[in-house]
Specification:
By secondary structure, the protein is mostly helical. It contains 11 helices and 6 strands. The chain folds into 2 domains: 116 residues; 96 residues, Arc Repressor Mutant, subunit A, CATH 1.10.10. Strands 1-3-2 form a 3-stranded antiparallel beta sheet.
Length: 248
Amino acid sequence: MIRFCELDDRNPALSLSPLVRGVEKTLGWMAEHGDIPLTPGKAFKRSFVHWAAAEFAWPGHTAEELFAICKVLNEGDFMPLQMLHGLMLAMRLGRHYKGEFRLTKAGRDLAERPGRIFSTMVPVFLFQLDHASLSARKEEAPPLVNWDVFLNVLNVETRNGASGDQLRRVFFGEPESSPAWQHDHAMRDLYISVLRPLCWAGLLQKTEVAGSFSYSDAIFSKTPLWQAALRLDTDGMVRFRSAPRDQA
């Protein structure tokens, strides 16, 4: 089983996690303004969604990117916020009460504790959430994730950065030849169920190639948070392969 290291709240690597930052910002808003108002459908109201889009600065979902698509934002237009809302409810860190989102004691205990936010929420987010449900089409992806295997392989393959296409070939082999218009479902599932969640947790960083928005071309590399939070069976292999030839 994958276990995360305990992280001090002052560890600067925690700032690399969009999930931790989003929860911190949400708790900070609530400390100042009180409970978050809900729509009749029990989503966060637009005023909070607009604030969150600007403050979270979530990679791939910044306010500039979101407002380029929608003139006004509902919670469903800001997928990471919708995910955090649902995750906090599922983990009983917050609840709906009289038209507002209110923190529970467990949720309040996370305030100003980024290390605790990470250790409490990231394992549940990575290992228990149905990431396929967060796809744009709400498609069901096959249960492809053995996290022990994926994390140990990625630990080696992304030591100097690797493209999405390279990682697709490592895990699933060469794609079958098909018309250019057909999607590579294995690449899509790898991105939605593995690579994007790791980026949202702050363990991987995605760098897009100039002129391309394809996650096949994007480069995925480990962040300092990966090094701080994870101890894996392949750590020795990473050190060996990264050492200069005369030291290996």
